[in-house]
């Protein structure tokens, strides 16, 4: 049985690598790297796939993909109103966070949703043609991820590889009783996302959405001890990641070299994140820097400092938010 599980693990890691590789090949083929990064962004939705009974992994990646596309479209069409972007982003992510926890879905949570929505909110001068074109490229990336997930699902079923037990609760939009604790956490999650977006953008940080993504990642923790541990780990791993990024940016980076390094870092993240959160996060910073370099080749080592500041802001806001939630929860109980 261990042999089968190992084969399944290798299959998933290979598929994650292929999803990004195929998106990069298409980007090179169409000779448009800026829009090609949107294909890669959609391909990252493979992270939402986990082989589960009742084909829940396929349902999850479809659900998250649709929510991601809706978020991108909504934020893009309203990004000409800067004050509205953080409000919509935080509201969408809060609702997704609420139902993600309510339904007990196994996935990275709103993290990629935050990323795709922030990409839409970065540019406040998008025209309908660019919005539609960007959306179609994201759809293509999600189709690549979904296709590979279906191949994995078929292989797991055909060879009888062991899947995770589906513990998802019934997916009902209307609920008769709203858990007060979850409602409070969702509200503060929304507030933290809004605050991290607003502060980082007000400081004119390069790629300010890094702060929002860091905040979202840390807020996935369920308790105060876990959030404190994640906050510490995220800061340590970011410092190591900044050092790796500095060494990488010293290299003569061609387009192929940059894509190759992204593929390597993405594979290391997918491989280690679930088993060692600290080591897995070593590679998120260089991957984020190189992704930014694809669309903006003039990026230099000053972006590393912006990344570090954004992570400190995002994780600190998340830490304070969870502390307040824990305090209020204890007061209510007492």
From TrEMBL:
Topology in the lipid bilayer: Multi-pass membrane protein
Source taxon at top rank: Bacteria
Pfam families, sorted: FUSC_2 (PF13515)
Keyword Membrane: yes
Chain ranges of the Integral membrane bound transporter domain: 196-320
Compartment annotation: Membrane
Swiss-Prot/TrEMBL keywords: Membrane, Transmembrane, Transmembrane helix
UniProt entry tagged with the keyword Magnesium: no
Record-annotated membrane-spanning stretches: 7-27, 33-50, 57-75, 111-131, 137-161, 182-199, 205-221, 233-265, 277-296, 308-328
Matching InterPro entries: Memb_transporter_dom
The protein, known as: FUSC family protein
Species assigned in the record: Apilactobacillus xinyiensis
